[in-house]
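Lecture notes, unit on protein representations.

Consider one protein chain, 182 amino acids long.
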Amino acid sequence: MKAWSAHPAKRAAAVGVVALGAVSLLGGCGFDTRQQAAAVVNGEVIHESDVRETFDQLKAAKLDFAENIVVTALVAAPLLKASVEKSGSWKPDETYASVISSIPGATPTTKEFVEAVALIQSQRMTPADIAAYRADLGRADISVNPKYGKVITSNEGPVYFTLGQTTPNWVKPEANSAPAAQ
């Protein structure tokens, strides 16, 4: 005991190193989750692997949706669902059932995507549903993996936002519109 208490500076340094190590280990867990996320909506993670699996299932069923559209629908899905649950204006219908039956082993994420798209295409949302959805969308805490761009709000379209870039991608060259030198 005397040897340990004789060197308070060493003891403080040892405790500091252990604490710093614990903080960096715990902080790394959140970082890994954020790196694997396609998006986070109000604290709920939409995993890259789920987006990829949904994309692959849709492609196998001959449904052509880009990955950023899959992410867009998955971001909007819980907000859309909450807005129509209040009014009861839409429940999964024949369109939903038909599409799901064409996707063997559809994952819960794929079902959520199909439900959101079927709801949007049904055009059965009431004005009150749309107002509730837009209010929820305005309050939502949404972060998107930069791979998919960023949330760009809009007053158009059925989900009132898109995922994309607001500035040109300087890494990918634009097509040259100048005539070729002769």
